[in-house]
Amino acid sequence: MFALLSTAGAVCCRTSSALRSGARGQEIGGDWTEPRGREARWGRAVGWHWGGVCSDVLSVVVRTHGGRLIMEVRASCLWVADHANYVAINAKAIEHVAEHMQGAVPSVEWDFEKIHFYDGGPLTAQYMLVLDAMNFCFWPDDELHYEHLARGLRNALVADPKAFDADRLQSYTGPMLRKLLNWPRELPLEEERARLLREVGSVLAKNFAGSAANLVARAKKSAVDLVELVAGNFPGFRDHTVYKGQQVFIYKRAQIFVADLWGAFKGQGIGEFKDISSITMFADYVVPAVLRAWGILEYSPCLAEKVDSQENIAPGSEEEVEIRACTITAVELLREALSNRTGEEVTSVQVDWWLWSSGIQSIKATDYHHALTVYY
Ligand SMILES: Nc1nc2c(c(CN[C@H]3C=C[C@H](O)[C@@H]3O)cn2[C@@H]2O[C@H](COP(=O)(O)O)[C@@H](O)[C@H]2O)c(=O)[nH]1
User: What is its EC number (predicted)?
Assistant: First the structure.
């Protein structure tokens, strides 16, 4: 894996130092059998002593980065973490993991072409946009997950290099997609996946002469600009919500599209992004399970019960938004704690890929939280 160097945002060191000095980290205990009112106090009871720190930090984020969408992701997720009732970030566990890793993030060696299509040119960008337009919600199927989608798309494109032309994309239905992928049964949210493909086809045709490579080129090697272009042009990628009256930005598939290009092209050519360190981790359902297993994320008893019993959690609910936003915030803090130990800068992408690849090997699918959604 290529080394990832980045300029970690100043905002995170202030946050983590506040967390370290705060009273946070005392043992979580006590009688959890009280009614929801207790839940409502849970987030604060376990010691969210950010208080004024969070609003200071938010003002730093907004002042230093203006309203760029990526910084809205960090700022809005930080705000959720500070107002969370069902999910808490354990700062001591973050320090413990950073200590255990001695600040080093294992480089993840992706054998990219083992599952992905790669030809070093524009068709790879087309493949990646198609993949990330459907890169969500595999948990309902016991067997066929993300890797199978990637391989299915790769095989389809190798068999028919015009399969992802904009006009073809606009024609796919659920059953046609299933056939294209050689999928043995209905895909989860199959018609939604086909609808999102049609959307990609029509927007590419209308705004980018049918080519994902034109979309990428328009960002002029800026990851932040590409995320904004994807979110601005493709409604299906607009992964944001409202939490306690505040808009919260996540943009998982828009960001993972950038990272997948960067990974596929090893940071060169179509995959070159001068500001790759600006993007956050990708709030999916694997990484939260890893962070919970490592004690970094703690769920309230009622949320833990729902997740452990594989009860569906409503997309956009306070519980679901808190899981995703606290995951993004925790990864930012972990990244900072790792960097602070070695002085080596790491990016959220590198931390994400390490956590995700650890999760895929160690976390059972029954540990994932279940939200039926097109966003992750
Ligand atoms: N945070 C994060 N989430 C990621 C990925 C990846 C794969 N990354 C590519 C990068 C280079 C390699 O070539 C990999 O292919 C998939 N996912 C998410 O996981 C879920 C699928 O899980 P399961 O149902 O168990 O297959 C689903 O939401 C999917 O969107 C990642 O890196 N980070």
Answer: 3.2.2.-
What is the rounded distance in angstroms from the CA atom of residue 223 to the CA atom of residue 272? 9
Residue 238 is assigned to a structural domain of this protein:
yes
On whether residue 196 sits in a domain, the answer given is yes
Gyration radius of the chain's alpha carbons: 20
Q: What whole-number distance in Å separates Cα of residue 103 and Cα of residue 96?
A: 10
Provide the whole-model pTM: 0.87
Q: How many residues does the chain have?
A: 376
**142 belongs to a structural domain:** yes
Distance of alpha carbon 142 from alpha carbon 118, whole angstroms? 28
Kindly state if the Cβ of 110 falls inside 6 Å of ligand 1: yes
Taking the C-alpha atoms of residue 86 and residue 298, their distance in angstroms, rounded to an integer, is 8
The answer to whether position 195 is within a domain reads yes
Active site residues: 284
Residue range 62-80, pLDDT digits in tens: 444 556 888 899 999 999 9
Query: Ligand 1 test: best mutation among 114, 282, 332, most atoms within 8 Å of CB?
Result: 282
Query: Residues 356, 285: contact at Cβ < 8 Å?
Result: no
Tokens 């729902």 -> residue: 306
Closest ligand 1 atom to Cα of 146: 26
Atom of ligand 1 nearest to the CA of 135: 30
Number of structural domains (the chain) is 1
Residue 354 clears pLDDT 80, i.e. is over it: yes
Tens-place pLDDT, residues 18-61: 333 333 333 222 233 333 344 444 444 333 333 334 555 555 55
